[in-house]
Design a protein that fits this description.
This protein is of the alpha/beta class. It contains 10 helices and 6 strands; from the N terminus they run αααβααβααβαβαβαβ.
């Protein structure tokens, strides 16, 4: 009882000088909230794609690579909350935002049954140079959050990025596709053979990077591949 009281008192004391604030709206977080308040999570615009076959996320890859299914949980729009959160995740060092968005995404995918036949999660990898610069892979933190709420295993360090490329941000559709050709490899194909793999990323825009990942996995292994992202560009 004393130990519990001491921890509560210490937490309140630290919060006085180092307040835990929502990265979305800036309000104080409750004890059971981390990085993002529940109100902000509820206001993120849902797509409902996880409930619909032949949805826009799936159609993005038609004629490019065969997928079992694809879903993006939220709309990603310029100037809105999800863009703000992902910017902080990728460029401001707030890596735990990835885990919280992953939990929210994972709960939605789990409740819809989207994850029922998935054997493992694979986050889109970063090249070692970018990983050293950023310090972490944001997609891996998202996948970690999804795995935590769904119990679907997470596999890292098998699908690897072997070519360092320039940022995709200001490239057009063809330049994005050209920029990510033949930049991935699989280290241990036997670990993946026969599995249904779910590729995880933060946002899908043109789908070029995810397409390259999926094609690499299919070329190296006897696998089924699906895709899930937190957001899909809606502009």
């Amino acid at each position: 009882m004393f130990f519990q009281f001491s921890n509560t008192y210490l937490s309140a004391f630290l919060d006085l000088f180092f307040p835990r604030l929502c990265k979305g709206c800036g309000v104080h977080l409750f004890e059971n909230e981390n990085e993002i308040c529940k109100k902000c999570l509820r206001t993120l615009p849902r797509t409902g794609y996880e409930l619909v076959t032949d949805n826009p996320a799936e159609k993005l890859f038609w004629g490019r690579v065969h997928l079992e299914k694809a879903a993006s949980v939220y709309y990603y729009r310029k100037g809105e909350l999800l863009q703000k959160l992902l910017h902080q995740l990728k460029y401001k060092g707030h890596y735990l935002i990835g885990e919280e968005l992953g939990k929210a995404t994972g709960n939605i995918l789990k409740q819809s049954g989207f994850l029922n036949d998935i054997d493992a999660l694979i986050p889109v990898p970063l090249h070692i140079k970018k990983l050293r610069t950023r310090g972490y892979n944001q997609s891996e933190y998202i996948a970690y959050g999804i795995s935590g709420v769904s119990a679907v295993p997470l596999i890292t360090e098998n699908l690897m990025r072997i070519v360092h490329t320039s940022t995709q941000t200001k490239k057009n559709r063809f330049e994005r596709w050209e920029n990510v050709q033949n930049i991935f490899t699989v280290v241990h194909p036997s670990q993946l053979n026969g599995k249904h793999l779910l590729l995880i990323d933060d946002v899908v825009t043109t789908g070029a990077t995810l397409e390259s990942c999926a094609l690499t996995l299919k070329n190296y292994c006897n696998v089924k591949v699906s895709i899930a992202t937190v957001g899909i560009a809606d502009f």
